Amino acid sequence: MKDILHITVSGNNGTRHLALTVERRKALLAALAGFVVFLLLMFGYIRFLQWQADDAGTRLAKNREELATLADDLTAAREAFEQVEEQRLLLETSIARKTEELSAATERLDNLEDKLGSGMPTSLDGGDLAHRLDLASIAMSSREVTLNLIPNGHPLEYAYISSGFGKRKHPVKGRVIEHAGLDLVAHRGTPVHATADGVVELVSRRKTGYGNMILVSHAFGFKSRYAHLKSIEVKRGAFVHKGDVIAYSGNTGTSTGPHLHYEVTYAGFPLNPKPFVDWQLDNYEQLFDSENQVPWPSLLATIESLRTLWQPPLSQQEPYSVASLSSPATSTSTDTSKESSEPTKPFVLAETAK
């Protein structure tokens, strides 16, 4: 019976004998082997599931980080959008305000054009106010009037400009300050001319600052200043014509050498005198592009209107003086020794500006 396995089990209830044949032993071993394989497969499957879970957790954490980053980006984008929206609203408000101002200005210009009649253009494509003022249509006499009333041209014969308009290092004080005019280098005693018709508003003689100085008040809020003079040839209140000799250049006041300090102001604000020094009949329109602190359209329209009012009938046209329109008395200016007794030369509308 060697093909039979006997198993004896003893206990309190007695002894039992089990007999296993070869077939049963094989079946039992096969079942045991299958169970072990099953356990190994289950262990491998559990490890696989655990790896998948770990990988899913890692990807989830990464997705959460990306989501948090996207949330931050979204918040930043929302804030940027709100800022852009706020700027857009401000721009819309500004555009609306500018549109209203433009409409009001256009209406005023239309009214002025109606009053001026054919002397000014009625409209241009685009409604651009800058082009509404058709410079080419301004009569030559109006240009000459403008060049006699508003400072232009050289106040004296000078060698070069030693200091321009704007910030500069002061040659005496040694620090950077605003320079409100031009320093025109010239020999001591060079004649200084009035750059436009006007009234001498101020004459001062000092040992510091401007030194000997003349301030001339012109039409429409313009003023010109002439400083560091050697001698002054006009008195306060005198009317001067464009081109009149009002002084001689020097080196008085706070100055390091002979020169003329020349300023041009409008409504109390300093302007760069260089475009005015270069301004003449040949380049009449150039100043209007380079100097935007002055409301040229309305100013030139006013001059054109005044010219129309001053213009006599063709049969009665004679030379006449601008001074006669603003002052009942003949203006006075002085030469190097005494006030001139000769009558002031009248300003002729048909003459070319000096």
UniProtKB/TrEMBL annotation:
<dbReference type="InterPro" id="IPR050570">
    <property type="entry name" value="Cell_wall_metabolism_enzyme"/>
</dbReference>
<feature type="coiled-coil region">
    <location>
        <begin position="60"/>
        <end position="115"/>
    </location>
</feature>
<feature type="compositionally biased region" description="Low complexity">
    <location>
        <begin position="321"/>
        <end position="335"/>
    </location>
</feature>
<keyword id="KW-0812">Transmembrane</keyword>
<keyword id="KW-0175">Coiled coil</keyword>
<feature type="domain" description="M23ase beta-sheet core">
    <location>
        <begin position="179"/>
        <end position="273"/>
    </location>
</feature>
<dbReference type="InterPro" id="IPR011055">
    <property type="entry name" value="Dup_hybrid_motif"/>
</dbReference>
<dbReference type="Pfam" id="PF01551">
    <property type="entry name" value="Peptidase_M23"/>
</dbReference>
<keyword id="KW-0472">Membrane</keyword>
<dbReference type="GO" id="GO:0004222">
    <property type="term" value="F:metalloendopeptidase activity"/>
</dbReference>
<protein>
    <recommendedName>
        <fullName>M23ase beta-sheet core domain-containing protein</fullName>
    </recommendedName>
</protein>
<keyword id="KW-1133">Transmembrane helix</keyword>
<feature type="region of interest" description="Disordered">
    <location>
        <begin position="320"/>
        <end position="354"/>
    </location>
</feature>
<keyword id="KW-0732">Signal</keyword>
<feature type="transmembrane region" description="Helical">
    <location>
        <begin position="27"/>
        <end position="46"/>
    </location>
</feature>
<dbReference type="InterPro" id="IPR016047">
    <property type="entry name" value="M23ase_b-sheet_dom"/>
</dbReference>
